[in-house]
Amino acid sequence: MLTNTENIIEVRGLKKAFDQNMVLKDINFAVKKEEKVVIIGPSGGGKSTLLRCLNHLDGNYTGDVLFKGQNLGQLSKKELQLCRRKMGMVFQQFNLFPHKSVLENITFAPVKLKLMSEAEAIANAHDLLKQVGLDEKAKAYPQSLSGGQQQRVAIVRSLAMQPEVMLFDEPTSALDPEMVGEVLGVMERLAKTGMTMVIVTHEMDFAQQIADKVLFMDNGHVADIGTPDYLFNHSKNFRTRTFLAKVM
Ligand code: ADP
Ligand code: MG
Which residues are in the ABC transporter domain (predicted)? Predict the structure, then answer.
């Protein structure tokens, strides 16, 4: 089948069940290079499951997920690893290694995978930490940082792998309100660098501002899709309207 190579991610006929529970029911969409796709929708609708399928964290699905034209389900283990490395993922829980310093958290994977020398990885980590205002915390341990600081480090740790796409699953949902802004600010600056991003979020102002395309996911379906202006201001979809009325 012909594939548009401009699509960094393409999802075709994706279905997934946990036992008898159909969680993803025929999902189709694509993410183009540099595009920011925001996924919104009620809890339990399948947003996290979808993100996990995108980078094959969970490969137990039917249908196709393509990364730059390569069908993830048909790759060798080695080829799959190479693709997965190009997709950074940031979770609600920051999952930093508790026994490693901030710097070690960031340099660990690129050095271990021999993507860079240790000296290069350290220089790169300091560069990235400066960009998120945390270079003075390089020697600190995660538990001494605030939630917002930990999440900024988690983003930097993903970026240190030089991904081509960044996937975010509710990156600010576990944060105290006063820390949400600093993380969204980092994501906004990342967006301006041209990074391709897929973001699950409940931050509706941020979604409207950053998105090129918004997917409304409900009960395992992409129930509505369009520009932020369409989705937030003009959609006549009953479920979209009901959801937005509750959260905005
Ligand atoms: P969302 O991120 O939109 O809140 P999820 O993708 O987490 O939705 O969940 C979608 C559905 O899949 C829910 O009904 C949830 O209970 C179910 N689910 C998610 N993960 C698992 C799992 N590991 N085992 C069984 N059911 C799961
Ligand atoms: Mg979720």
Answer: 9-244
